[in-house]
């Protein structure tokens, strides 16, 4: 389901004589100001921002005419982050401007949309040289009244899939580990060898010396690369990069397709693309966040932990555990819950969560998930009958048998589980059993 989101900017973003002026929309305040200072590597920053904007206007699966959506920017301590999803929600892009990448002060903390319009994209493509570029994220004068001048207003159909995508990606990437790191020269050669945008195959990248080798089958240590053409947005930053790092979950022979993260590091900024397991799959339907949404105890923990978040570049789990009196595992579960409302994301390079607050309806991720709604209805109706580690769930005119495996995962006899076999999260019957187990504990 899409909702019409109105973006109100005081003026269009532009590359002016004085520098790069990025306009913000609503968030922690109307048109918040996050930063004013210099970018130390302007060409690299321009390339990274273009990549994030390009992903936001691209639909990789069944391409259609581009329709630009405004990326999201977060200002926090010593970090600026720009994020977007592709139109098909199968690619998540993020550029992190690190302390070495700017000379200035983060003036505000918060998350909002940032205007990256077509004329600005054309101007960014021409940025070059080594002289620092002045950057203003948000208006320089917050006292300006919108009645005193023209307001740029765009009404954009904002996909509900974006919100659900933010809810899913952080849960998936929190299980990633570094799998490979190769120098920029080898990364350039590797990306040039990849199939084009029309290729929809699922490949696997295996570390091989200073480069990566592609195979058609998964092996231990391999990284899934589904729809290799979706990495095209990285190419504009290759000439500035030092390394390409690749992250993913552990796989073995016979593993199904899984998501992966591909990250270019210039030393002053990082540009990453996280790909869904298959080109036609959007992150919004993966179901990884369902268990975090289903628990009752973790909701209370999340409220406690959320009150202590303070816009640190990386959230210190141990410090939060000490401050709240919760165990490290309960703090991590609470952070996963907060991520379903867009309040935290996950950075694979730092192996840690970071604070953000999405400027959209935080409750949407739960309300729009039919499996979660269906599971709550089953519990309320008393449709779950437990029998040790097994349970029978009455849904409609049918009974479904839910079994708990030795690894703690649940299986079900329903069609959903038979089709996806846990690859897209639990079915509503397994979710209902999990909810009832939480209540029993």
Notes on the structure:
The strands form six sheets. This protein has an eight-stranded antiparallel sheet, with helices on both faces. The longest helix has 15 residues, at 42-56. By secondary structure, it is α+β, with helices and mostly antiparallel strands. It has helices at residues 42-56, 118-124, 160-173, 184-193, 290-294, 297-306, 317-324, 328-339, 364-367, 370-380, 415-420, 428-440; strands at 2-9, 14-16, 19-22, 35-39, 72-76, 79-85, 91-97, 102-106, 110-113, 133-137, 152-159, 177-183, 202-208, 211-215, 223-226, 243-248, 260-265, 269-275, 344-347, 352-355, 384-387, 390-395, 398-404, 410-412. The model is unreliable at 142-149 (pLDDT under 50). It is built from twelve helices and 24 strands. Helix content is 26%, strand content 30%. Strand 21 (384-387) and strand 22 form a beta hairpin. The relative contact order is 0.13. The chain folds into four domains: 2-157, DNA Polymerase III, Chain A, domain 2 (Roll); 170-283, Roll (DNA Polymerase III, Chain A, domain 2), CATH 3.10.150; 290-363, Winged helix-like DNA-binding domain superfamily/Winged helix DNA-binding domain (Arc Repressor Mutant, subunit A), CATH 1.10.10.10; 369-440, no CATH class.
């Amino acid at each position: 389901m899409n909702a019409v989101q109105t973006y109100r900017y005081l003026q269009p973003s532009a590359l002016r004589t004085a520098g790069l002026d990025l306009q913000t929309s609503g968030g922690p305040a109307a048109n918040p100001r996050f930063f004013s200072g210099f970018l130390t590597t302007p060409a690299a920053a321009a390339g990274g921002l273009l990549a994030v904007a390009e992903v936001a206007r691209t639909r990789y699966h069944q391409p259609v005419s581009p329709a630009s959506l405004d990326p999201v920017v977060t200002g926090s301590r010593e970090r600026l982050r720009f994020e977007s999803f592709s139109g098909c929600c199968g690619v998540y892009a993020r550029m992190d401007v690190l302390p070495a990448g700017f000379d200035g002060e983060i003036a505000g903390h918060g998350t909002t949309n940032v205007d990256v319009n077509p004329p600005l994209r054309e101007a960014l493509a021409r940025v070059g040289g080594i002289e620092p570029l002045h950057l203003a994220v948000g208006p320089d004068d917050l006292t300006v009244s919108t009645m005193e001048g023209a307001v740029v207003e765009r009404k954009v159909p904002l996909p509900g899939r974006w919100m659900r995508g933010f809810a899913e990606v952080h849960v998936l990437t929190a299980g990633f580990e570094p799998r490979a790191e190769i120098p920029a020269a080898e990364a350039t050669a590797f990306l040039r060898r990849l199939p084009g945008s029309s290729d929809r195959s699922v490949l696997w990248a295996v570390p091989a010396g200073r480069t990566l080798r592609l195979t058609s089958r998964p092996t231990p240590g391999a990284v899934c690369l589904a729809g290799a053409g979706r990495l095209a947005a990285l190419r504009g930053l290759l000439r500035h990069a030092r390394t390409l790092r690749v992250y993913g979950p552990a796989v073995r022979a016979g593993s199904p397709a899984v998501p992966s993260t591909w990250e270019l590091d210039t030393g002053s900024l990082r540009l990453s693309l996280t790909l869904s397991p298959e080109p036609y799959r959007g992150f919004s339907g993966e179901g990884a966040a369902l268990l975090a949404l289903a628990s009752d105890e973790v909701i209370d923990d999340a409220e406690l932990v959320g009150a202590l978040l303070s816009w640190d570049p990386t959230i210190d789990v141990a410090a939060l555990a000490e401050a709240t009196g919760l165990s490290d595992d309960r703090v991590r579960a609470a952070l996963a819950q907060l991520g379903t409302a867009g309040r935290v994301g996950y950075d694979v390079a730092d192996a840690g969560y970071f604070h953000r607050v999405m400027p959209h309806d935080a409750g949407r991720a739960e309300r729009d998930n039919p499996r979660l709604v269906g599971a709550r209805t089953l519990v309320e109706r008393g449709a779950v009958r437990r029998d040790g580690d097994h349970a029978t769930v009455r849904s409609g005119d049918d009974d479904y048998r839910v079994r708990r495996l030795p690894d703690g995962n649940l299986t079900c006899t329903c069609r959903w589980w038979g089709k996806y076999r846990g690859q897209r999260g639990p079915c509503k019957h397994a979710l209902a059993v999990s909810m009832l187990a939480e209540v029993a504990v």
